Amino acid sequence: MKNTIYGYNDVPNVSLLLTEWHGPAIDDLGQFDGRRYISVPAGAGLANALAKQDPRLRCKRASKEELAGLKAVSPAIRQINQDIATAIRARYSVDDEFKALRTLDPNYVTFVAEQVAAGKAKKAGLGFDEKFDAAAKAVAKLAAAAAAAGA
Questions:
Q1: Is 66:29 a contact under the CB 8 Å cutoff?
Q2: Other C-beta atoms within 10 Å of 47: how many?
Q3: Beta 27-32 vs 35-40: how paired, if at all?
Q4: CA distances in angstroms from 146 to 18, 37, 70, 91, 100, listed in the order given
Q5: Backbone angles phi, psi at 33, to 5 degrees
Q6: Segment 5-15, tens digit of pLDDT
């Protein structure tokens, strides 16, 4: 089951509650627009615990707009993207990658599609909706073109 992302106002002593949390693991996704965001496993009850701790927290599920902004600045998302780039660079030099793109090398396209899919799965596991990710659509289009060219 995927996590849900909650945002709350940064209020003193909240970090104390989070470090003392003994429920399922949570991920700190960083700050956006003056609020801190966390990824919480379904049914963890952390949002209710935060709301009861201090009403100034205004803990609520993140909106689509908040998720889009958070995705652009989150250290967790940056790390996932970096892991994808590192995996690709470990196998392909920049020159090899350009050649693979020019020739629509099916091995390259498949490898990149696998790396992007793994990254999407990690992001979705944190609670980000990855259904309409433009980069994934572009990679899928390249994979289809490479398959057609190789057939």
A1: no
A2: 18
A3: antiparallel
A4: 47, 39, 33, 19, 10
A5: 55, 40
A6: 888 887 776 66
